[in-house]
Design brief:
Helix content is about 10%, strand content about 35%. The chain is built from 2 helices and 8 strands. An 8-stranded mixed β-barrel has the order 1-2-3-4-7-8-6-5. β7 and β8 form a beta hairpin. The chain is globular and about 40 Å long.
Length: about 160
């Protein structure tokens, strides 16, 4: 309930509220409950209870590099509950509060250890492309591994 209330407040305040980005998609996305998610700044427990959170030590949304976002797979609205269903070529858009929109296509999905922080690095695909990296726990509800979806920017 807190997730839905908070996401609704963010939607009503967009683009002036505390969100650093809005994720949206048509078709397959990280969740089937909504077609857009508002991303807060930070990945603290409080942030992630309200929706996805931007890893502050990665590229700021709208800039060149690797923008990384974490989200719960179960509980707290499960904003990344369907992340495992995203496939190569699926598209996801990221909009900044100033209206800049970038479109990304899923290029890679991985299962890694929780300490595999290289997926948050600036050149995660090792080809110089701008990327959006989405992370969540795997298996659902357990912190054994991280499911990582890396999408390459295809339009800005």
């Amino acid at each position: 309930a807190a997730f839905e209330r908070y996401q609704e407040r963010l939607q009503n305040r967009w683009p002036r509220g505390p969100s650093v980005a809005k994720l949206s998609w048509s078709g397959r996305g990280p969740t089937s409950k909504v077609s857009e998610l508002f991303v807060s700044s930070g990945t603290t427990s409080t942030n992630l209870e309200r929706g996805p959170g931007w890893y502050r030590d990665t590229t700021r949304p709208g800039a060149d590099g690797n923008i990384a976002v974490a989200g719960h797979r179960t509980g707290f609205g499960a904003p990344f509950g369907n992340l495992d269903r995203m496939r190569l070529g699926d598209e996801i858009s990221l909009q900044t509060p100033d209206g800049e929109v970038s479109t990304y296509q899923v290029a890679e999905t991985l299962l890694v250890r929780p300490d595999a922080t290289w997926v948050l690095g600036p050149d995660v695909l090792r080809d110089g492309s701008n990327t959006l990296t989405l992370t969540t726990c795997d298996p659902p509800g357990v912190n054994t591994r991280r499911l990582v979806v890396i999408a390459r920017e295809v339009d800005r």
